[in-house]
Amino acid sequence: MKRRLRVESRAEEEILEAAQWYQDREQGLGSAFVAAFRRALTRIVAAPESFAEIVDVPLEPKPRSAPMKPYPYRSCSGVGSEIVRVIAVLHERRDRSTLG
User: Fold this and answer.
1) Average pLDDT rounded to a whole number, residues 9-30
2) 57 in helix, strand or coil?
3) pLDDT digits (tens, 9 = 90+) for 26-36
4) What pLDDT digit, counting tens, does each position of 50-97 carry?
């Protein structure tokens, strides 16, 4: 069964902030960052359980983390039976405890 996708406002804000940071460094990088996020969304919706659980956060069910290559960011999603919620987009060096 294909699940619906919902991107939470926090994740949207984080995407826009990171995209602006990249765009400020080089023209076109912001758009490329957003494209990497969209590719991650496609993979998440197709197979949400294929991504690693983030075990060190106090959330149930445990969110899953999808890489946004080539950028050092991860899309963090809560996977339910009918919906996949993108709850955050985190830099790989950021403390994941901010998810809880």
Assistant:
1) 97
2) coil
3) 999 999 999 99
4) 999 988 888 888 899 999 999 999 999 998 889 999 999 999 887 666
Within 1-100, strands assigned E span 4-7, 52-53, 64-67, 73-79, 83-91
The residue whose two tokens read 């960052």 is 33
**Half-sphere exposure of residue 72: CA atoms within 13 angstroms, side-chain side:** 5
Name the CATH architecture for the domain at 4-99. Answer: 2-Layer Sandwich (3.30)
* CA 54-56-60 angle, 5° bins: 65
The residue ranges of every structural domain in the chain are: 4-99
Which tokens is 9 given? 């406002």
pTM, two decimals, is 0.87
**At 12, which amino acid appears?**
E
Q: Which amino acid is it at 60?
A: E
Measured between alpha carbons, how far is residue 82 from residues 41, 48, 95 in Å?
Answer: 16, 11, 29
